[in-house]
């Protein structure tokens, strides 16, 4: 049998395409359909139910707000870490990479458990805060928005550090030397040379961190407790506890569209217009 | 001294790195610490030293059953994701495909789409078309999530391969299958190997899909831990979690040997 290169490559890609069609694209399509289906045909009732109830809108707002805070903290911690990681000796870099990848490859459930121990009423950190007189007797960080932010930043920081690192290692160090020779201070060089050139990595990392943070529910629901809900946690609850699938599908669509709405202008604004 | 960094900045950056590393590793250290504790209650720093919680885990039917389920799924996922992803990577690398750019985006899209959206769709689609979820549902959906990682590691290795080797084999009269098996596959091996370990690690640690697609007789290890954390965690959860951390360390060492972590970090 004769076949050409195209056919051979298509045959190689076919199992993957079939798998994605069956177990990725069709399921997403099913979810979209379900989100607009009611007792009598097409309907937008699930969307209007969500968007007209202050309870749900509050949860949506909290999700967006926390995701933004988490993204900003990840940039602030991730950029210097990535820059230092790119400029230290290979040996030290290896250990800094390990410190990022080991948590990244550990199950989210396990990492959240560690924070639950540290931030609970009897945990080390709550205890320190009380001993130092910063907090009252019953103080604990668990079950607060701060707890969610701490847990999520630890979960997502590796993504940020790695995407910034990917860009910084490609920056020509001679540019920095030139800037220093011309009289710029170290911080000045960092601000006017390294930071602008790292922008693609910062943007990519922020997109990833924002999306992941808006759509995660395991860490938020364990750290925040039952009172402080986020959108993804609500979706999980609607699917597994109240069993309102079309409503859950609508929430998932809102989550997805919300993520896109924030991301599109962000990409527009931060993409460099030249070069 | 053009390259000089002000001393205060040196101190500040050392401090910053140390604190960030501490922050990143703290939860893991805490979990491992608690797992060796002697006391009935979860406390850090741990009180005393004992292996009783490990003993408890290794003799508990619930934990062993979920460990077995996790292992079974992870092995299935590793095999399918490596085969299917490797083949797709070869096709994408050669680039002679209809719509090859679109296809590349399609294959990497599970990386970008939040897992929860795909998980809820999978649950709805599966229960409508095939009936109740089963181990097959988890197998397929974990494979979808692992696929992009295998494709990326394999593509990374192929990018450094010599394109003329296949050309040479063709000129010497090797058939398509011979070229694939004797020329392309050997070049892919490091990428496939690293991808396989990623796939295993992803499936073994995955919790979102497993929570949405769970049923009473199909509980993976992360789901089991999540359930315990929601209600009444005791140090045995820490022992299971610590075992998972040790497994991750093992995986990392292996991936480093095959592909080099530095390279993974940069790609």
Order of helices and strands of chain B: HHHHHHHHHHHH
Q: What quaternary form is this?
A: heterodimer
Major sheet of chain A? 2 strands, antiparallel
Chain-averaged pLDDT of chain A: 88
Describe the structure.
- The complex is a heterodimer of chains A (275) and B (267).
- With 275 residues, chain A is mostly helical.
- Chain A has helices spanning 5-35, 45-51, 54-87, 90-104, 108-119, 124-131, 145-168, 173-181, 186-214, 218-224, 231-240, 245-270; strands at residues 37-38, 41-42.
- Chain A has one domain: MetI-like fold (Orthogonal Bundle), CATH 1.10.3720.
- A two-stranded antiparallel ribbon of chain A has the order 1-2.
- Chain A is globular and about 75 Å long.
- Chain A starts with a helix and ends in a 5-residue tail after the last helix.
- Chain B is an all-alpha fold.
- In chain B, helix 3 (61-94) packs antiparallel against helix 8 (176-205), helix 4 (100-112) packs across helix 6 and helix 8 packs antiparallel against helix 11.
- The longest helix of chain B has 34 residues, at 61-94.
- The model of chain B has no long low-confidence stretch (mean pLDDT 88).
- Chains A and B meet through helix 1, helix 3, helix 4, helix 5 and helix 7 of A and helix 1, helix 3, helix 4, helix 5 and helix 6 of B.
Question: Any chance you could write out the topology, listing elements then pairs?
Answer:
The complex is a heterodimer of chains A (275) and B (267).
Chain A: H1 5-35, E1 37-38, E2 41-42, H2 45-51, H3 54-87, H4 90-104, H5 108-119, H6 124-131, H7 145-168, H8 173-181, H9 186-214, H10 218-224, H11 231-240, H12 245-270
Antiparallel strand pairs in A: 1-2
Helix pairs in contact in A: 1-12, 3-4, 3-7, 3-9, 4-7, 5-7, 5-10, 7-9, 7-10, 8-9, 9-12, 11-12
Chain B: H1 7-35, H2 52-58, H3 61-94, H4 100-112, H5 115-129, H6 135-159, H7 163-171, H8 176-205, H9 208-212, H10 221-230, H11 235-258, H12 261-266
Helix pairs in contact in B: 1-11, 2-11, 3-6, 3-8, 4-6, 6-8, 7-8, 8-11
């Amino acid at each position: 049998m004769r076949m050409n290169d195209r056919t051979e490559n298509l045959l190689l890609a076919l199992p993957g395409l079939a798998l994605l069609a069956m177990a990725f694209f069709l399921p997403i399509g099913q979810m979209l359909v379900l989100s607009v289906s009611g007792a009598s045909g097409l309907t937008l009732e699930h969307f209007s139910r969500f968007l007209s109830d202050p309870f749900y809108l509050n949860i949506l707002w909290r999700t967006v707000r926390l995701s933004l805070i988490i993204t900003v903290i990840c940039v602030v911690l991730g950029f210097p870490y990535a820059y230092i990681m790119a400029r230290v000796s290979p040996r030290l870099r290896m250990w800094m990479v390990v410190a990022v990848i080991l948590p990244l490859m550990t199950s989210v459930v396990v990492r959240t458990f560690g924070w639950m121990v540290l931030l609970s009423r009897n945990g080390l950190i709550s205890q320190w805060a009380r001993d130092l007189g910063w907090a009252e007797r019953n103080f604990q960080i668990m079950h607060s928005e701060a707890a969610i932010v701490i847990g999520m930043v630890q979960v997502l920081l590796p993504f940020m550090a790695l995407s910034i690192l990917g860009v910084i290692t490609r920056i020509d160090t001679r540019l920095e030397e030139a800037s220093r020779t011309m009289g710029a201070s170290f911080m000045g060089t960092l601000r006017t040379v390294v930071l602008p050139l790292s922008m693609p990595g910062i943007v990519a990392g922020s997109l990833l961190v924002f999306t992941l943070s808006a759509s995660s529910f395991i860490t938020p629901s364990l750290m925040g407790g039952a009172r402080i809900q986020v959108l993804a946690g609500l979706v999980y609850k609607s699917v597994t506890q109240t069993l309102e699938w079309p409503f859950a599908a609508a929430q998932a669509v809102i989550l997805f569209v919300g993520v896109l709405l924030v991301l599109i202008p962000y990409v527009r604004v931060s993409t460099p217009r030249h070069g | 001294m053009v390259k000089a960094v002000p001393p205060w900045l040196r101190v500040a950056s050392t401090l910053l790195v140390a604190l960030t590393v501490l922050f990143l590793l703290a939860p893991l250290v805490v979990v491992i610490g608690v797992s060796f504790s002697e006391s009935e209650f979860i406390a850090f720093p741990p009180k005393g030293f004992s292996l009783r919680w490990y003993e408890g885990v290794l003799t508990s039917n619930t934990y062993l059953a979920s460990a077995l389920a996790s292992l079974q799924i992870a092995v299935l996922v590793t095999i399918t994701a490596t085969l299917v992803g490797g083949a797709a990577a070869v096709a994408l690398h050669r680039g002679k495909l209809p719509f090859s750019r679109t296809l590349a985006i399609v294959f990497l899209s599970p990386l970008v789409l939040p897992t929860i959206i795909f998980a809820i769709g999978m649950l709805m689609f599966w229960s409508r078309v095939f009936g109740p979820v089963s181990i097959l549902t988890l197998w397929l959906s974990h494979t979808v999530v692992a696929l992009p990682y295998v494709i990326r590691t394999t593509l990374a290795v192929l990018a450094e391969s010599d394109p003329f080797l296949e050309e040479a084999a063709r000129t010497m009269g090797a058939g398509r299958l011979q070229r694939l098996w004797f020329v392309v596959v050997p070049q892919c091996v490091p990428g496939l190997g690293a991808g396989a370990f990623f796939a295993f690690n992803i499936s073994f640690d995955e919790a979102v899909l497993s929570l949405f697609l769970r049923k009473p007789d199909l509980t993976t290890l992360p789901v089991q831990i999540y359930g315990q954390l929601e209600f009444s965690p005791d140090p045995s959860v820490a022992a299971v979690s610590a075992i998972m951390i040790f497994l991750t360390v093992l995986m990392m060492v292996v991936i480093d040997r095959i592909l080099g972590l530095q390279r993974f970090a940069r790609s």
